[in-house]
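Listing S7. Sequence submitted for prediction.
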Amino acid sequence: MGDTALIIIAVAVAILVLFLVILVVKLMKTVDEINRTIAIVTKDADVLLNQADTLMAKTNTLLDDVNTKVATIDPLFTAVADLSTSVSKVNNSSNAFVTRFTGKAKNTGKATAVVTLGKSAGKLFKKKNKD
């Protein structure tokens, strides 16, 4: 009976060792595949990071160029805004002048309207010269 028990134990240990060997072989294949995957991912990540660095450098250059051009154009927009304000003031003054002249011309004849126009223009120019 003792010999049979030893044979059963020996067979059980042999089967266990066989399963462990198979497990270790599969585990080694899995570890090799993981190592290859990590190497590929690392290589691709390096390429991606290099491209991102290049893209960032080009973006910075482009942004500097745009900022320089905007700084160059900025005085133009300021000048256009000032010109628009000046034209608006001239337009308002012209409208006020025409309104005053029309009101005075209704009450007078044609000859007096011309004289009134001359006087009003003289007053307007004197007022503008004072400003």
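Caption to Listing S7: primary sequence and predicted structure tokens for the chain studied. Helices lie at 2-106, 110-130. Residues 2-130 form one domain.
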